[in-house]
Design goal:
heterodimer, A: mainly beta, Porin, 16-stranded antiparallel β-barrel, two-stranded antiparallel ribbon, 3 helices, 7% helix, B: alpha+beta, Immunoglobulin-like, 2 domains, 5-stranded mixed sheet, 4-stranded mixed sheet, 17 strands, globular
Chain lengths: 380, 253
Amino acid sequence: MIRRHLSALIAVLSFLTASAQAQLAVTGEASVNLLDAAGSFTARLPNGGNPSFGWRLDLFADAIVSENVSFISNLRVFQSEDPAFDFLAVRVTDIIPVHLNLQVGKFDLPFGNLGERRFNSRNPLYSLPLMYEYGTALPATPVTLQELLSHRGEGAGMRLLDFGMYDIGAMIYGSWGAVGYAVAVSNGTVSATSSRLQNTNADFGKVVRLTYTPMQEVVLGASYAWGAYPTAGTTPSTYPDDPVVSTAGNEQQRTAEADIEFNTGHLSVFAQGVVGSWDVPFETRAGERELSMIGWYGEVKYTFMPRLFGAVRGSGLLFSDVDYKGVAYRWDREIQEYEAGIGYAIARNVNAKLVYRHTIQNGGGGPQANLVVTQVVVRF
Amino acid sequence: MTAFSHYPIEGGILRRILLAAFLLLPAAVLTAGNRDAAPVSPPPGANISGTITITKAETPEEAVRRFTQLNRYAVSKAAALDAQGGSQGVRPMSDKAVVFLEGGKLNKQKYPTPTRRPLLDQKDMMFHPRVLAIMEGTTVDFPNKDVVFHNVFSYSGPREFDLGRYPKGDSRSVRFDAPGIIRVYCDIHAHMNATIIVLEHPFFAVPDESGKYSIENVPDGEYTLTFWYDRDVVSRKPVTILNGAAVTVDLQY
């Protein structure tokens, strides 16, 4: 698998650098962590929570083909996963004088303000906010209400925001003064990206994002995404009490968010709130066929002195109610997570972090994903 | 030994400097008290001047900056960076070259504390100048002239600092009290780097755009003329000032 990916990357870069004007930059980062958890089986803990070493490698190969054309790629090699291109796109900039830019290929959907903090070298902590990591009880394939409820707390379904939200599509973006914009169309949705596949249903995901920078210290953002999320063609399960509609496969997902970033001096603050809803092929409450949830996080980083920084983050997920045989249930177990850590720059390109994560999940039966992790990240 | 002695140097010259340092050590110890004496102006001396010629092909810094502007994971900010633009030209020699003296008795004197506050600008997504020579005790200002944040920092031993983020029009300052090499970076834009050379004496010069330089009022003695270009020392030449006679030394890289 990795040989195939690397061959493709080498072929593309060779082609680009064959151009007289092309300039190539290859950089990357690698991280190793030692993780000790509470010893429980959740999708968010590797190796059943047993003490483990983990690692991740990212290679960035970018080429500037001409004044207005660039090629961008990111090959991710992650423990226990096949290597994958997270980013493989061509960008054409300054198409018209108002800074209209075009990006085509595989890229991160313009939704929210996670930005480069998805990488260990820029993430002051270990995890990502829950909305990016926690798998809900709802899968992309149709299920019945009973099946949905039976998978609560397992973390095996779709995320509210699919990790890095990498998908294949096209995007235009740019800015007018303090206002930035991005409009993207992709195979999948922000919860169910189709990053390794062709489109899995008849609809495209659509994303619109606006940002406003009233002063250099503050960036306000808002995004909205919609589109069909299920994998079409999957035969729905049936259950006597949950009549599954025959049109399964075109149910819509609608997701809205607002975010803020504040930087001044040695202080950085990030926050985001997301509201998501999914049409489902079963009745969730009288006359309704919709599930919804809210995700939130707030993160603060402060640099105490040269080399030494600390960070804290709180994040949570709230779920709507469903009625099952006359009883109201949350369609997944609500969860909150608090993370605190300190970091030290051993060198300009080498960071060490010590992080504690505390997870509280309603009905989860005790610690689910608490952990202590030490991590060393090298950029090159 | 000086703070710069770990940089490349010709073996013969190195031996001579080490021998001179060894022979001069007793005298240096005996005269160490002079460093605590009242500041004195440098005695009248000779000028060391010459012309610097750069013949070596260089990697265009502009290209490096453009890679940073790809900024793949912050679309809304990428647009701002695109709008920011940047210098399309080649840096003048005065931005990248410095010549200074090492050895002799220069470090044993007490020189007036500098009052001039040089600038290390953050402009067009680059530091200007790329190389800044100062005397110990100098305070350097770091104004941000870009519409985006920068976060200037250094982990170099003689002076670690982290200035945090501040907007366009604001400035922070750092005083450098110990001699040595200070590597300066931006935490946000990895391609941005500069070097501050903190010297114990005022005998250094920045060439003009044509490459001409002049180090003035150098007292009699044997020195090493060090030519620093961009990130490193690129050459060293022995220089002797005798009876106040001016010396011309042309340098090439």
